[in-house]
Each structure stands twice: as structure tokens, then as C-alpha cells.
Amino acid sequence: MTSSDDTGFLAAPCEIAVRKYVPSIRASIATILVKVYGLSIYRTAKILHITPAAVSNYLLKRRGGDYVDLILKDEELYKLVSKIAENLISENIDKQSMSMYICQVCRKLREKVEKTPPMHRPILEYMLERRASEEDNKS
Known about the structure:
The protein is mainly α.
């Protein structure tokens, strides 16, 4: 069994998500801070603890652009990232809460992109079915 995913066979779902979805979540937050709240690239960089160049790359979709449009156009996802942006501006969020918000957005994004099963369904069963389906489609 081979896969085009370079994260490895034993990669945890969150490990994959960090590479695949979190950059788009960060890009969406940066976009909201700049375009909705009118913050400068420099102020946004300071709030997000990243460089102004990273913010610029997010805005130009050079980095993290894969799912930005989906996040910003989907009402549920937009509300979640807007809440994060609002909390960042008001400095009403700690590191642990930020992680939980990002996790929540990531789970919802994965559900929409991958058509993932509800969390109560065993993930292994789902992954095995999906792998078999992908192999059938290759044949």
C-alpha cells in the first residue's frame, strides 16, 4: 500500500492536519485581522507572533492558501475564525484556549473537506474503508 501523503503510515490525524489545514486557518485569521478589522500587516504579525512577511504571504495566498476561501465563505467556519480574531484583538485568549479554538476549527474543516465521519465512529474503520475505496478507484 502506497500513499501520496508523505507524513508516513503511522501519522496521527492531528499530525496530518498541522501540515494540511492549520496554515489555512492561520491565513484566514490573518486575512480577517487585516481586511475586516483594518489592522496593518505589522500589527497583525505582532498579534499572531509571526513575521510581517508571513502575514503578507498568507494574504497573497503564497502560504496556507489551500482552504482559505472555503473557511472565509463557509458560515460556520467563518464564525469560528472570526471569534478567534476577535479574542486576539481583545487579548481575551490564552495559549490553551487558542489551541482548543484552532482544534475546533480544524475538526470542522476536516469534516467538510474530507467528509470525515462523526467523531463517535471508529477512525480506524473509516480509514480502512477509505483506503480500500481509493485502491478500487485506482484499478
